[in-house]
Design brief:
alpha/beta, Rossmann fold, five-stranded parallel β-sheet, two-stranded parallel ribbon, 9 strands, P-loop_NTPase, AAA+ ATPase domain-containing protein, AAA+_ATPase
């Protein structure tokens, strides 16, 4: 009897029957099946069993939530070093900070967990996601409003916030709060493209530090944002802590998988775990996404063990979803893979190199023939040069893992849902060679 049937039967009992069974500890054999009246096809699940499956699907969503940042430290896997840098730099030394890394690496999750730690140390923490086109006033004024509302100062009511703020105005307003400690978190900082706004923000950070006002700004974005801030005020180097976010290691990936599986009441086979780790390349977003879709596939088949077939079916689903949001890159990936399996090792090297900062350096991947040059040319059309460097990176920083997922499913027509290949076995063979 599988777990769904046991849960369904338990839910189907009345409260009195459940209590009686718990009190007496009696075993009740399942009723005999009337084979003569049995239908040739499987019966649809009973309503109580549907409820049990829905409960497990809900547990999967909570255990492998790839759509929202985590807020609890216990869910932040493989980020202790980055958290230590952030705590030491901001809370202990009084610096500002810049958290930077690719999409899906967990920057916002780190910032949210850090915010909880800062709150426990007596800071008032305010968070805002930046928007394109914001000027300095629209960027900072919401934080000043929040500070005034949540930490009103003694004395007469404060004057209105100027319609056009300068960095010095902000420092004077915040200085009125005395030693009340604030942290302002600016997420999606790479959306701020106006160099004048960046220069004013850099000047604000420097003035806050010089005036010893206990207000710290934490920006969350990509590496170029750090360079632009420092370009706005060179001496800011002494007052800002850089916290780069890289891919998490294999141990952290396996811990993430195992904890999420335990929360969902499911088990992953070793091959399934290795496959996800191999393709996700240490991206927390992809680990959670692939795990969640694999679990849903297993539950669809009414299984409590997530096998390799469910993992790869989930990856196919993730690729199909991603294709809708980025059809042009997906089409180029399909075309490159469609050149034949002889080109797959080179394509895999390109995808993996792109997941490791600073990206693909010139000469890192040398095509071995004219056909390989064609595959590389197709992939290059999905890339651009890293700002301030010669290295190449995918325009869509989530794309390399989807390209890897596509490599391990052979194509028939326009879909990737047939004849999946065990990438773990292929990887082990390549290592052995």
């Amino acid at each position: 009897m599988n777990i769904f049937t046991r849960i369904a039967r338990w839910l189907g009992l009345s409260a009195g029957e459940r209590n009686a069974r718990q009190a007496k500890g009696k075993r009740h054999p399942a009723p005999m099946l009337d084979r003569a009246s049995a239908a040739p096809t499987a019966a649809p699940p009973a309503p109580a069993e549907v409820m049990a499956i829905d409960a497990m699907r809900s547990a999967v969503r909570k255990g492998f939530n790839s759509t929202q940042p985590v807020t609890a430290a216990r869910h932040l896997h493989g980020r202790q070093q980055e958290m230590d840098l952030l705590v030491e730099g901001v809370l202990d030394r009084g610096n500002h900070a810049m958290i930077f890394g690719g999409r899906g690496t967990g920057k916002t999750s780190l910032a949210r967990v850090f915010a909880n730690m800062a709150d426990n140390r007596g800071y008032l923490v305010f968070y805002m996601a930046c928007e394109p086109g914001q000027d300095f006033t629209s960027l900072i004024a919401p934080f000043l409003d929040a500070a005034r509302t949540n930490a009103p100062r003694a004395g007469p009511p404060p004057s209105a916030i100027p319609a056009c703020l300068t960095p010095r105005d902000v420092v004077e307003i915040l200085a009125d709060h005395g030693q009340r400690k604030f942290i302002f978190i600016l997420d999606e900082f790479d959306r701020v493209a106006d160099t004048d706004v960046l220069a004013e923000l850099a000047r604000l950070m420097k003035l806050l530090s010089d005036a010893a006002v206990p207000v710290h700004i934490v920006a969350v974005g990509i590496a170029s944002g750090l360079n632009q801030l420092i370009a706005g005020h060179e001496s800011l180097r002494r007052h800002i802590s850089a916290v780069p976010i890289v891919r998490i290691d294999s141990d952290a990936v396996y811990e993430l998988i195992d904890r999420g599986a335990a929360h969902a009441g499911l088990n992953f086979t070793d091959a399934a775990r290795e496959t996800i780790a191999h393709i996700a390349c240490g991206s927390p977003y992809h680990v959670r996404l692939f795990c969640a879709l694999a679990c849903f596939e297993a539950l669809r088949q009414r299984k409590t063990v997530v096998e390799l077939s469910s993992v790869l079916a989930g990856m196919v689903r993730s690729v199909d979803d991603w294709k809708i949001t980025n059809p042009s890159d997906a089409a180029l990936f399909h075309e490159a893979i469609g050149l034949g399996s002889d080109h797959w090792p080179m394509i895999e090297r390109v995808a993996r190199a792109a997941t490791i900062p600073p990206g693909i350096a010139p000469g890192d991947v040398e095509p071995q023939c004219d056909q390989a040059s064609l595959a590389m040319a197709l992939l290059t059309r999905t890339m651009h040069a890293r700002p301030g460097g010669r290295e190449m990176m995918f325009r869509d920083s989530l794309a390399p893992q989807f390209l890897l997922a596509m490599l391990f499913a052979s194509q028939h027509g326009d879909h990737l849902n047939n004849q999946v290949v065990s990438l773990v076995d292929a990887h082990r063979q390549s290592v052995a060679l």
